[in-house]
Amino acid sequence: MIESNVSLKNFNTFGINVSCKLFSQTENEDHVRSVIQSSEFSNNTPLILGGGSNLLFTKNFDGIVLRNHIQGIEVIEDTEQHVLVKVGGGVVWHDFVLYCIEKGWHGVENLSLIPGNVGASPMQNIGAYGVEIKEVFHELEAIHLKTGEIHYFNNSDCQFGYRESIFKNNLKGEYLISRVVYKLFKKGDFTISYGAIEKQLEIMGVQELSAKSISDAVIAIRQSKLPDPKKIGNSGSFFKNPIVDKSSYNTIKSSFPDVVAYPAEKGFMKLAAGWLIEHAGWKGKTYGNYGVHKNQALVLVNYGGASGREIYDLSEEILNSIKEKFGVKLEREVNIY
Ligand code: FAD
Ligand code: NAP
């Protein structure tokens, strides 16, 4: 069914009050194909929507929104070491993480409590606490929005990078990711040397590491630090951490010796964008009903009733001030519509 003039307020975690011209919630592959064969679809710009937790609407969407709701979790290979699990793109990501933990599989525990759906997880190669999905990603199925054909993408086809994939770049807007196959492990190492995980495990008195204890630690840290989108509208980190070459890093470091940075690939350095924004004086700034979060300067927030345009304009001011103060060009992580 295709509906007209549907509010998107409850379909984006920023809580922006906009609507779309046409809307359809797709439950399975045949349903997707029937929508994309319709004249409403071919005459309008499409937008695939998951949980709406990584986007900002700056105006009403004058096109057709397909909300991917394909469900299902199916084990397709089970060995002594690993399982391959095929997951519907409409499954809530954190529900999938909890499912893996309950089964004793590991690989996604550091990615606990990331909002959104499985279908969007490859879009920006979601990552947190030293783990990215590319480490456990096996394959995905995607429906081509022009032909309705299913195409398969393996790990290298997806061209995963730091909060990047081919679906955010060359293939932007061409596919609906319908199912993702993840490879989870029955034994192996855990990643705990990142951020506050070790400290949190200590506070919790954890003696023996497990996927469950790491997940519990990550959940506790996230709940103490990040605004819950159910209470305060936001889309997580608004900007990506910029990757700069060594000489730019040294220049910044000579003027700002405390700058927080970590080694990145190929000798580059990753600057903590939150540190830059905080030290440009933005942390906690509030403009009526929107602003910069008080605990995490990377997160822009809507306290209720702000427009997407106001939040976008604030992000533009932040970008300009970081360029001026540190000579660094920030990039938005959130998708703007
Ligand atoms: P949406 O916001 O619905 O869509 C995002 C983009 O993907 C859009 O361009 C959309 O068109 C496209 N898209 C969505 N589904 C599909 C599909 N099935 N096929 C094709 N295109 C699709 N991200 C991290 O990486 N790490 C974090 O730790 C993290 N923490 C967060 C914390 C908070 C509080 C919030 C609000 C967000 C956080 N995010 C984080 C960002 C966000 O949760 C993830 O990027 C998530 O994967 C987005 O999923 P979604 O289903 O909400 O996507
Ligand atoms: P944090 O632990 O305060 O760390 C600040 C920044 O430093 C992070 O962005 C992180 O980069 C980097 N960092 C910390 N320890 C590192 C290490 N050992 N090696 C390399 N880089 C390190 O960050 P936070 O804001 O509380 O977030 C915790 C984790 O959740 C981070 O991984 C973050 O990416 C993720 N997160 C993402 C979003 C989003 O919307 N994308 C929202 C909230 C949280 P990375 O970001 O590259 O990891």
Key words describing this protein structure:
337 residues, alpha+beta, Uridine Diphospho-n-acetylenolpyruvylglucosamine Reductase, domain 2, 3 domains, four-stranded mixed beta sheet, 27% strand, binds flavin-adenine dinucleotide, binds NADP nicotinamide-adenine-dinucleotide phosphate
On the 0 to 100 scale, the average pLDDT is 97
Helical stretch tally: 8
N-to-C terminal Cα separation, in Å?
24 Å
Specify the overall morphology.
globular
Element-level helix/strand string: EEHHEEEEEHEEEEEHHEEHEEHEEEHE
Q: Proportion of β residues?
A: 25-35%
| CATH classification, class level of the largest domain | Alpha Beta
Structural class: alpha+beta
Say what the CATH topology of the largest domain is: Uridine Diphospho-n-acetylenolpyruvylglucosamine Reductase, domain 3
Structural commentary:
There is one protein chain. With 337 residues, this protein is α+β, with helices and mostly antiparallel strands. It folds into three domains: 3-68, 2-Layer Sandwich (Uridine Diphospho-n-acetylenolpyruvylglucosamine Reductase, domain 2); 73-225, Uridine Diphospho-n-acetylenolpyruvylglucosamine Reductase, domain 3; 233-336, Uridine Diphospho-n-acetylenolpyruvylglucosamine Reductase, domain 1 (Alpha-Beta Complex). The chain contains eight helices and 20 strands. A five-stranded antiparallel beta sheet has the order 6-7-12-10-11. The longest helix is centred in the last third of the chain and has 19 residues, at 308-326. It is globular. The two termini are 24 Å apart. The mean pLDDT is 97. Residues 13, 47-55, 68, 89, 114-117, 119-121, 123-124, 126-128, 175-177, 226, 229, 234-236, 335 line the site of flavin-adenine dinucleotide.
